């Protein structure tokens, strides 16, 4: 006790001083979120994406970044700054993505990143929401005749280093007393090219990305088979830095807003017709009554701005993932049998 108290007291005093100073200052001068204040000052949210994955983040023929991850950046920007276009995309790789967020180069990371304990516990970063419940899958050539991972003992597998995919395959092979040779290639185009040219027997990553890659092969898609085995859970989430709780809240409640909108049938196109709704949930959601925006340090119409910019969660899916031929499944909202469930916005 004699040794405990002084240390404890020092920590408490230091905590009060630091916490008091930072949050007191932020409250006096700004929103309570250093990240939001910085984004407001520069007039832009900076969002880390991959920029290379169809359905998630890939520029279209006009150079506009498209995909679920890109629209996630848009939604949070619309909530934060009231305008989804006040957004800068920064491409990141599997290996530099966490440093980009830690260093402050980006305000948030929306890059098919799996939520794991060690990532949340060790990196000073945290996951605000899951925008895609995924799992590790395998793509093989139809000509190989392989129908299941169990037939792939001794196989060479192309995989990007620094991914949870690498760990999932290692676990699976260890558990099943099988062996594989990892062919580690950092660049996405190279890893895909290596697989297509036969340098490895299979290409493994998140099943979503395999499905969209297969789809992008056009007529040649039929030569490739996505095996039915999904060997791990890969909840892909949106990450922010620890220590800016208000920014975390903004990211989290942006998703809640898109889910509630879907529950209530509110879309990008019809949202204005709901402004006169008598449903208390809808009135609070759209900022007609209550102080939901204020609680987040935002405009009362933050959720309205999100819906105007990207629509509800289902619209985000339909715009980006449905065209790739991937059914929504567990990614549906809870009222339709899926995992996306929003806490009450009250
Ligand atoms: N979800 C896994 C894998 C993430 C990952 O890097 N996925 C590939 C899927 S294609 C990707 O986004 N590559 C794009 C790139 O390297 O730019 C993780 O968090 O480690």
How would you describe this protein?
This protein is of the alpha/beta class. The protein has two domains: 29-134 and 235-336, Periplasmic binding protein-like II (D-Maltodextrin-Binding Protein, domain 2, 3-Layer(aba) Sandwich), CATH 3.40.190.10; 136-232, Periplasmic binding protein-like II (D-Maltodextrin-Binding Protein, domain 2, 3-Layer(aba) Sandwich), CATH 3.40.190.10. The chain is built from 13 helices and twelve strands. It has helices at residues 4-29, 34-42, 68-81, 97-102, 117-122, 164-175, 188-196, 207-215, 245-264, 280-285, 292-295, 302-310, 313-320; strands at 45-49, 58-59, 65-66, 87-91, 108-114, 125-134, 136-141, 155-159, 180-184, 202-206, 224-226, 234-241. The strands form three sheets. The protein has a five-stranded mixed sheet. The protein has a five-stranded mixed sheet with strand order 9-8-10-7-11. A two-stranded antiparallel ribbon has the order 2-3. Helix 9 packs across helix 12 (302-310). It starts with a helix and ends in a 26-residue tail after the last helix. Mean pLDDT is 92; it is low at 1-28. Glutathione (GSH) binds at residues 50, 52-53, 93-94, 112-114, 160, 163-165, 188, 205-206, 209, 234, 236. The site of glutathione has 18 residues, from strand 5, helix 6, strand 10 and strand 12.
Task: Describe the SSE topology.
Blueprint: H1 4-29, H2 34-42, E1 45-49, E2 58-59, E3 65-66, H3 68-81, E4 87-91, H4 97-102, E5 108-114, H5 117-122, E6 125-134, E7 136-141, E8 155-159, H6 164-175, E9 180-184, H7 188-196, E10 202-206, H8 207-215, E11 224-226, E12 234-241, H9 245-264, H10 280-285, H11 292-295, H12 302-310, H13 313-320
Parallel strand pairs: 1-4, 1-5, 8-9, 8-10
Antiparallel strand pairs: 2-3, 5-12, 6-12, 7-10, 7-11
The structure holds glutathione (GSH).
